[in-house]
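Shift notes (night). Ran ACO12 thioesterase while the centrifuge was going.
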Amino acid sequence: QACLSYSNIAALTHLARKSGWDITKTLDNVKIWTHEEGAVLSLKVEMQVKVPSHVAFSLLSDFRLRQRWDRHFLTCEILQAVSEEEKIYHVTAPPTTGHKPRDFVILVSQRQPCRPQEPYTVAVRSVTLRAVPPSPEFCRSEILCAGFQIHSNSSSSCTVCYFNQVTSGVMPYLAANLTGSSKSIEDTALECIKFLE
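Came back to this:
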């Protein structure tokens, strides 16, 4: 478990540090970037939020609050609190056209910064839990690497960066967005900002 949580945090840190991000959209307080490497598409959503970074961290690290602002989360329950900083959740997502609803079993690892210039981190990846085998009513999907980095701007504002390394399980929720026929990424980002503030 220690190895899994370390690799969870390390994968997100590595993704965040990659060079070659292309900006695809800029709104007032939201920027959307993409990064393509071979068959892997990664997404970065940068949000300017008027709350202290530790407040954003505590709200974003509890995934049970996610339904309040992210309509891609139908339900979310804690399956196992591995430690203060690691929790395993079961998440269900609404069906996309012509498909069954999806579900995910995810490990969420949270870390406070060790040094002032470092971000708060909330890393997410899929795990396998024997107690929750795939169910016939859902299409079990996988998250390779996703999560948030929260950088403090001042005592009352921060920059929240959301990352997702897009897999086929997540793609249906993003495809329409990236081709410009839907605004769900922006809408979700604006809902997130509203929720945090």
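The chain has four helices and ten strands. The longest strand covers residues 40-49.
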